[in-house]
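Reply to dn_fold:

You asked what the input looked like. This is it:
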Amino acid sequence: MEHLEVWYAQRLVERLPRLRGRNRHRVSYRHIIDWLIRKPGAFEQYRYREDLFPTSRFRMAYDSLKQTHGDRAAKAYLRILYMAARETEDGVDQALRHLLNEGQPISFEVVEALVRRGQEIPSATQVTVGSINLADYDALMTRQEVAV
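and this is what came back:
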């Protein structure tokens, strides 16, 4: 009752959560990308367009493409989304993260090169914590506070 299962040839293909209430929808870009890639002009007016951004980085990439590519942004974004559907969504997402963090321009060719090369993209957070001298904390307290 809480989910819908899609079976094909005795194999579970997909499990979707049940959506309750009015006007609830779930559109997977993987299901419609083949049609959208052939008609990129339909993307701008697509009713459920917001569902076609798997992560916030995909949305940021689209906004960046709008600034640099203008009217051709939808076509460029759909090519990136198509690659995510056919190759690896996580790989494309990591490539977009890298490009956005570095401030580099986003294009299909650059994202494709990063994904295909399997280039090691630096992790999102690389934190280095130096050694701590605990005596520094003792200096913060007065003798009177220590006595209590």
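Strands lie at 3-8, 11-17.
Hope that clears it up.
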